[in-house]
Amino acid sequence: MADTQREIERKYEATDDTRLPDLTRAAGVDRSVHRGLIELDAVYHDTADLRLAADALTLRRRTGGADEGWHLKFPVSTGIRDELHEPLADTLPRPLAALLRSRVRHAELAPVVRLRSARDVHHLTAADGTLLAEVSVDRVRAERLAGEGSGTTAAWTEIEVELADDGDPAVLDAVEKRLRKAGIRPAGSSSKLARALAETTPVRDGNGPRKTAPHTAGDHVLAYVRKQIRTIVDLDPAVRRDLPDSVHKMRVATRRLRSAFKTHRKLLDRAATDPLGAELKWLAAELGLDRDQEVLDERLGARVEALPATLTLGPVRGRLRAWSAARRTGSRRRIIDVLDGTRYLDLLDALDALSADPPLRPAARRAPGKALPRAVLKDYERLARRMEHALEHPPGPERDTAMHEARKAAKRARYAGESARPALGKPAKRFAKRVKAVQTVLGDHQDSVVAREALRTLAIQSHAAGETAFTWGLLYGREEAAAEARERELPEVWARASDSVLRADLKH
Q1: What is the pLDDT of residues 119-139, one digit of tens each?
Q2: What's the rounded Cα separation, in Å, for the pair 442 and 403?
Q3: Which of 216, 221, 473, 483 has its CA 20 to 30 A from that of 316?
Q4: Is residue 141 within 8 Å of 155, Cβ to Cβ?
Q5: What is the model's pTM?
């Protein structure tokens, strides 16, 4: 994977005659060291319809400076980006191309803007010589290479203040205070590329298409659907980079989207959504190959660590590690293969097509206050039937299965409430919160069912290897007790979620 660096910087407007104030008067700064002038030449690449720029991503090939090469930047938050770097090459390196696949897909990347900058660099250091920040005065000349405004140029001067690695952001505040006192103000554009595109794009009459607030039930559902599609696309690079919790979040987005198709089938044509739902189910399954094992490992590991040493008999931790390793599927490589595959890219294309030309049914034109509560309450009724079925069974395997089915219904009802929240407000929020509590109890119960089966397997393996199975039996008993506690808790939690007043609120 490409080298990654967290970039924390701020940009300021300047003119050719702007002079930096004395920044050694900023709190914490001892010296300002002039590092000289650097000539930079960067060519920015994008699709013809500027998909990367639309998502505030920048891809460039830059020569000059200590870090010349290919740079790909992902926004993290205001003024913060993750920059991935690959060595200089004539063509886009494959690791960076992979991170852009969910957005670029079958389109071509080509040069769109060239920026040549004369960068006057200053290093701000602490009293012990530690680098605090780099301040540069950049004189920029931009040339549009493709698309609208091709051949147009623009020029400006800006000041850039970039925090040193592991630096204290308070330094940026102190420097900004000095710059503002000198009459220097923050830049209006978030990046050089954004400014170059803005200044080289022909001005059109009017303001273009205006965004309107959701009005109908279909508008609200589509807004939710598009949000989940956007989340899947945005998380693709994070999954490839193996960022924490990214696989889980992407899996949840696929489930939310699939649930929305089912919940709102009166508004969206099933002929279009059912095939997509099947593909989303496939994707969620692929993403979950090792996620479920990871959750189980965490649960069993925590149970083992909570035991006193006197009750941990035999090579318990070693046995648990070996068992877990044997069950791992090598899914990290498999997930990347899935994301690189034609089936996944076809799914993204199909989701985009649905977003662009939604298969709305006549009921989608209804007011959200009428159509959405009906959809949510229908999912609630489905959950109620499954809960009744689960609670009527005595403890045992049949109840375990019934509670697992109820858990899946609770998840769908919760997602339904969340999808309706922008239209229905607090009643939908309260409903989703109560149903989530039911889902949590049912989920922990199901985790205990899975954990007990794993502990039984571990006990059998230990016995066959001549080891004592005492600890595994002890943990099995504790999981049984945990499941029984959840079963006792469930009726009260369900009673709160099935409150008739709560459901009536949704209708009003």
Answers
A1: 999 999 999 999 999 999 999
A2: 6
A3: 483
A4: yes
A5: 0.88
